[in-house]
Amino acid sequence: MDFQVERQAFHSSTDEGLVWLCFKPIITTYKTMMRENEKIGRDGVLAKVQFYRQLTPGQQGLFMYCSYHHHAIESQAEFYWWSAYFIAQPMFWTSLKKAAQYFEEDTMLLLLEEVEKVLTSQYDSQHGLDDDKRMFATISPLDQMFHQFAPATLQRIGARIRHNPSAFVQIVDEVTTSSALESLRMF
User: Fold this and answer.
1) DSSP state at residue 1
2) Is the terminal CB of the chain with fewer CB neighbours within 10 Å at N or C?
């Protein structure tokens, strides 16, 4: 899909800022598409799959990693919940791990695999962290590692976008949007 980013914004962004700049039109398009599908009563899962398949490999990686990161970074409970949510939907979890592979984020991939082992082991991921002190003790260091690795991961993803922008976005002098207000809303 073609997602536009203004040239000036692209070149003036930090590597981490570039990640979010390029993610913004993807998530905005996704949310618009999901709202439209909801209005007509179309199957949400099918719509998600079709949207994802229209993305380039770079856009797929950016979409999955940023969707996860944006929520999981908020707190340990969010890290746990979003990890369990992605794992419960194998297509999401597999795509998230493929994103880590695409960006050659081996450390993040290993962390995700550890999270998967913990959440698919003997622990009951249907309960929250407050209900299971053993799960809390196990997930806590993984959440800490995620917080430790995440900033460098975003910087490296941004550097990759900067070196190969056409895999992610189309750089234009001025973005054409149907609604300037909608383009300002990220989430």
Assistant:
1) -
2) C
Query: Measured between alpha carbons, how far is 96 from 86 in angstroms, rounded to an integer?
Result: 8
Please name the fold of domain 4-165: A middle domain of Talin 1 (1.20.1420)
**Which helix or strand (DSSP H or E) is residue 111 part of?**
helix 106-119
Cβ atoms of residues 62 and 168 within 8 Å: yes
- pTM equals 0.86
Separation CA 73–CA 151 (nearest Å): 10
Q: How many Å apart are CA 132 and CA 113, to the nearest integer?
A: 21
- Low-confidence stretches of the chain (pLDDT < 50) are 125, 178-187
* CA 39 to chain CA centroid, nearest Å: 25
